[in-house]
Structures are given as structure tokens and as C-alpha cells.
């Protein structure tokens, strides 16, 4: 039995996986804020998931955690997870001591990348394009996460693509995130909708000109992200995930249409067959929690070796 925890800004999504990586149980608890609350609630989520799967903690093989911030996967330390109130926390060793099993800590986008790779039954190379509040990517090759030399591979949200654009929170001008990040779309749109990006798409379908402009900007940014990922890493598949992906086919179809339009002006881009390489993450699945559990398996096997 393997557990996976996806620690987000407001909730912890925990799953228990069987030997065949099927989800046997799933629970959610509030995340809390600050190191004490995050540790306490993560431990509670793990224990509740084990109980829901009707196994004892002693029967667990491993635990994996996906969490935002800068993660030292080797040491199990997360840094600068500001939305969780974490400066530096040795989350892996702390939970491992409490649970008595190996605990692997992974960046949340990397964890979601593993989950998407598994759920879609992919092989070879894949980039996971996370369109959430911000924009980031994760890379998986033959089932293993690739993090880069210093763990920042996939930070494509902070690649400037519009010299006349807005100043990003990182200090640069016209970053990809300012076009395709759900948080930026919500800020530009205004209002108090629970799902502002969905409201923008609905309003655009109804003919609202401002909504059409925002929707097209987001779609163009997402298409640019796909192009960047393929041109830089030549991945076979780009999987779009994150909160914005819940728009579903309405997003995917427009991204593919944008890529088709780009290909019509460039034989080179046309030769890359970009639209055929883009997929959506399976809807309704706890992708990051499943990926975290799979990352935990890797940690357990490494210790066993």
C-alpha cells in the first residue's frame, strides 16, 4: 500500500494506491498555514487515507508528497512555499519519523507530471504544462522526472514573450504567465466569480468582446507554451493540466487551432505536428496525489537498493 499527498494552498488531497497503482481510497483535509499546521494536517491526511483503505500504517510501503515551492527531493526539504507559510521545512524526515516509512517530497508540478504520465499510459518523453494560478511545466522521460541541473527545469512561466506586456511578479516584462496564468486572467477580468476563467470562456462564447480578447490571449499563451516545450526539449507529448484545464475541449480545441494557424505560416512548425502532440489531463482524477504516491515508490525502491 502506497500513499500520495498533494498539499495545496487550501487542501491536502490524499490517496492510497494498491500494487496495481489503482486508487483504493481518497480523503481531503484542510492544509492550514505555517509549518506546525502543515505537518499536523499532512500526518492526519496520511492516517485517514490509510484508515479509509483499511490498512495499518505499519503496512504502508511508502509515502510521497507533492508540494509547491523549491523542493530538495534528496533531502525531503521544501523551501519558499510562501502560500503555505513555509520558509524551510524538512517535511520528508519529519513525516517519515512519525509514520515509520520512507517519505519522498516532490515539487507539486513534478508530482502531477508523474501522475499524468501514468494515467494516460504514456511512454517516452512528456511535458506536463500546468495552467493554474501561474504557469509551469514538468518533464518525465521513461517514467522518471527530469528536474534540470538546479531543480528549476520547467519554469517556463517566467519566459518573457511580450515586450509590450505587463510586469510579472518576478520583475520581468511580458512573461508567459501574464498571458496564460489563471490568476492573471482573473485579475484582468475582475468580478467575484468562483471560476473566473470559466466565466471568461462563457462570456466570450456569448460575444463579449473583452472576454474574447482575454480568452484569445490565454489560448495564445498556452499555444506558445506548447511550442516552447517542444522546441526546447522535443518531448513527444505535452499534457495540459492545472485548474485552467478544467475548461476541457473548449480550451484544447482552441489551443490546437492556434497551433494549426502558426503551422500555416511556417513549414518548419508544420513538420513538428504540434496539435497531434497535445493532450488534456484526465478530468476528475487526483493527478498530483497519484504522482506523489508514485514518487514515494521510487524513494522506497531507492532505499531498498
Structure in words:
The chain has 305 residues and is an alpha/beta fold. It folds into 2 domains: 2-112 and 288-304, Nucleotidyltransferase, domain 5 (2-Layer Sandwich), CATH 3.30.420.40; 121-280, ATPase, nucleotide binding domain (Nucleotidyltransferase, domain 5, 2-Layer Sandwich). 41% of the residues lie in helices and 23% in strands. It has 10 helices and 13 strands. It has helices at residues 35-52, 91-99, 108-119, 177-180, 182-189, 196-205, 209-233, 249-264, 267-271, 287-304, and strands at residues 2-7, 11-17, 23-30, 62-67, 70-72, 77-81, 86-89, 103-107, 125-131, 135-141, 144-146, 237-241, 278-280. A 5-stranded mixed sheet has the order 3-2-1-4-8. Strands 11-10-9-12-13 form a 5-stranded mixed sheet, sandwiched between helices. Strand 10 and strand 11 (144-146) form a beta hairpin. The longest helix is centred in the C-terminal third of the chain and has 25 residues, at 209-233. The chain starts with a strand and ends with a helix. Belongs to the ROK (NagC/XylR) family. This is ROK family protein. Pfam families: ROK.
